[in-house]
UniProtKB/TrEMBL annotation:
Residues 80-157 are annotated as: Disordered. This is Protein-export membrane protein SecG. Pfam families: SecG. The gene is secG. It comes from Achromobacter piechaudii. The keyword Cell division does not apply. PANTHER family: PROTEIN-EXPORT MEMBRANE PROTEIN SECG (PTHR34182:SF1). Belongs to the SecG family. Coiled coil: none annotated. The keyword Transmembrane applies. Residues 99-147 have a biased composition (Low complexity). NCBIfam families: secG. Keywords: Cell membrane, Membrane, Protein transport, Translocation, Transmembrane, Transmembrane helix, Transport. InterPro entries: SecG (IPR004692). Involved in protein export. Participates in an early event of protein translocation.
Amino acid sequence: MPLMLKLLLAVQVLSALAIIVLVLLQQGKGADMGSAFGSGSSGSLFGATGAANFLSRATKWAAVVFFASTAGLAYVSHKGTSGPAVDSGVMQSFPSDRSVPQVPGAAPAAPGAGSSSVPGAASVPAAPAAPAKPDASVPSAPATPAAGDKPAETPAK
């Protein structure tokens, strides 16, 4: 690991810890967590409102350092990568041919064979014809009588 990466990582961890401590020391509206650590008294080193101003400014600068170190880590860690980070994977055996997919069962078209400006349009088959009308030679099912109808009687000869 390069020295710059180690340095930026150390700065980021220290600034993150500083943010945590500074936020916990600040006086809240309900719980007064800061007074539990001794920063809530009015006779402190910074005065009654001086501690709040100091803690909020220190938190702001710790956050600035944290975000700057994060940006620096992102830049340093991705600066030297020129190729893929992983050499093997799921897509390794995928063919790199980027031609237009063909319709199954159709003959492959030669490049530039069609007169259309759309690539691969010559190999697309035409739309199927409209469905044919019912054929008169096919017998239809016999009509069933309705519930109240009497079956037709054939005259006896």
